[in-house]
Amino acid sequence: MLALLPDAEPLLSRVRQAAPGFVRSLPAHVSLLYPGPPPSAAEDVRVELPAHVDLAEPLRGESGFSGVAVPELDPAAAVLRARFPDLVPYGGRFGEAPRAHLTLVMGADSTTLDTVGTILADALPLRSRVAGPLFVQRTDDGWRPA
Hints:
CATH class: Alpha Beta
Largest sheet: 3 strands, antiparallel
Number of domains: 1
CATH architecture: Alpha-Beta Complex
Strand order of the largest sheet: 2-1-8
Structural class: alpha+beta
CATH topology: Cyclic Phosphodiesterase, Chain: A
Oligomer: single chain
Order of helices and strands: EHEEEEHEHEEEE
Helix content: 10-25%
Strand content: 25-35%
CATH superfamily: Cyclic phosphodiesterase
Distance between the termini: 10 Å
Number of helices: 3
């Protein structure tokens, strides 16, 4: 289940051009709950999303991860985790309550992470509209709206 960040798309495009092998083919977004509930649970997904969010804090983590924190979406993610307690975010790899974030790259080497850091230094802070929540599912052809 995603919250789209359309005004962050130019940032993601810059990163995609600099590090094409490390950026997923999804639009700029925050995963509010992954894995998410099935689309049939749409009636149970009533979560308030802010109209805008501010992206200002770069994140760099394990396994070649770089992203940007989106703290304004943490409350929405917490509501969804409480509503669907059997869905453990990311299978528990990042704890029970991972921070809401825009992922830029995963699996990148240190040189690529440094390049992404330079792009972020130039691009942040950034304000984006928020759209969603959007249900998506992984298929053999990649991620698709559900």
